[in-house]
Amino acid sequence: MKKIVILITIFCITIITIILFTVFGLPYIKPVKIPFALKGYEITLEDDYVILNKYVGNDKNVVIPERFLTKPVKVLGDYCFDDGLNGTPLEKKIESVEIPDSVEIIGDHCFEFMSSLKSVTATNVISVGEYAFYEDDGLENVSLGSDLTIIKTKAFSVNLHLVSFDFTNVKEIGDEAFAKSGLTNVTNMQSIEKIGACVFAKTPWLYAQEGDFVIINGSLQLYKGEQQIVVIPDEVKSIDGAFCKYKREYKYPIDVKEVYIPNTVTSISDDSFYCQHNLTVYIPDSVTSIDIFCGLNGNEYSGIGKIVTTADSYAEQFAKENGIPYEIVDSWEVPET
């Protein structure tokens, strides 16, 4: 009998040791994916925090736990709540999500295609991933706290009921982050340091801005003028989709013939001249980055018919590499507008 008690004790101690090592020791060596759901989530244990990989619960109003196995939840993983992808059935109609104070990162595609989602609240989120809230048809309210710093590509695109967003302390916004959304009210953008192309494309807010040029902290987002010969103002530091043409239902930008870029500009983003026709662009040697996709078989999509630049400039190299006609000059006169 005594031997049996000893064996049972040893067995229990071994099991407890394995569990403790798995939870508190092994994650310091490598991430540990728990093979069964806890509290309605599939999770991965890191050294001192938890990643939520997938929600498998059935709540309409979700309150995410702050801790699992004593460790704080820090990351909502890629596709965690994605409605219709990654095995989450479409009938799970989540309407609201409360994110705990411990969460700092919302992963790529995390809440994508959640047609019934109306509200998401958090306090300490720092980064929102690519396509994180993409095409959430009913999304009306998003409050992520004042620590939000990074909003990645298309994070809030195609949300027609999202009409307001506060950018306090946001430093970086990716390409098309709010494109095709219903934004009419945008506040506190003074902290933005890096902004992508077409961030607010096709939004009511963008088209409501006054003046010929919509410039956000040095980034030219849209040309709203009526002149076909365009002289970009000196306050512009980057051109980020400003002349990209969409469907004909959008009045701006118009077809332009010539664009004169000042020597304050250092970069030109992808799609900046997309669907323009045989446009002539005057590009100074201050421009050291051109991310325009021209096509797989030559200059199909750039919208540029000719580049005028100076010898040995980055623009000359770009023209040569992409089969765009170019002209080398010592300088050019900027027309009065």
TrEMBL record:
InterPro entries: LRR_5, LRR_dom_sf, Surface_bspA-like
Record field: transmembrane: 6-29
Keywords: Membrane, Transmembrane, Transmembrane helix
A Pfam family of this chain: LRR_5
Superkingdom as given in the UniProt entry: Bacteria
Annotated Gene3D superfamilies: Ribonuclease Inhibitor
Protein known as: Leucine rich repeat-containing protein
